Amino acid sequence: MDRTAMGEFLRARREALRPEDLGLRPGARRRTAGLRREEVAQAAAMSTDYYTRLEQARGPQPSPQMLSALARALRLSVDERDYLYRLAGHAVPDRLGRADHVAPSLQRVFARLSDTPALVISHLGETLLQNELAAALLGDHVGARGWERFEAWRWFVRPETERAKYPADDRDRQSRAIVAGLRAAVGVLGPASTAGELAAELEGRSAEFAELWQRQEVAQRFADHKVLIHPELGEIEVDCQVLFTEDRAQALLVLTPEPRSEAEEKIRVLGVLGTQRFTTT
Fold first, then answer.
1. What is the pTM of this model?
2. Where are the transmembrane segments (predicted)?
3. Which of 60, 85, 203, 281 is the most buried (most CB within 10 A)?
4. What CATH number was assigned to the domain covering residues 3-87?
């Protein structure tokens, strides 16, 4: 681990950013070039003291999870992320098998979305980023571990919770779309990839998945229009706009209601309600 080089690199990348890159207000007079250390630490979900020690070349070796969080917070490119991993003495993440480093281009757009549900997902259905409205509407899946990271796993192994978000008459279509999307990922990444391992696991766990998998359907799984169900607010109709990275490994999903509609009002209420649930006595 090269602490000095890593500290210099982190400081340079921090100073190259501006508050608006993270969706923050520029504020009045700022004595610090670029972002403040506490702003980077908050974006990476770590203490300011810990981040400061890394910049000052006196911190411990950060874990791969910490490095991943720093790469997202500092809006690093994939090449810059790999460089950071090497400076920290860790193996560089597999670019092909995992796509959990969110592309800076998507992060910049995502950071400016706060009044409508938005999330960034990988080609395997992992939720990489989501704003508060998306978490309130779809559930908070950022940071999930193991197979729980993947929408296909939750859909077929835990249907009682995952499928409740969709109307009953739309669930068969959702099942087929999820399977077709996973087969497309296996086609790109190969049967020995995480995508292939996920498909094999699901074939052994879900008869429904196994039957759909045999249909050999391949397709992108995003619909232009969705009806989602919230436990308190009921059905919410939204249009789904999708922005892909160039390699289509990640997608930014923006869920927008029709202007001046009942759904738009429900999204406003959702912003107040958040992830809390009403209870009865």
1. 0.66
2. none
3. 85
4. 1.10.260.40
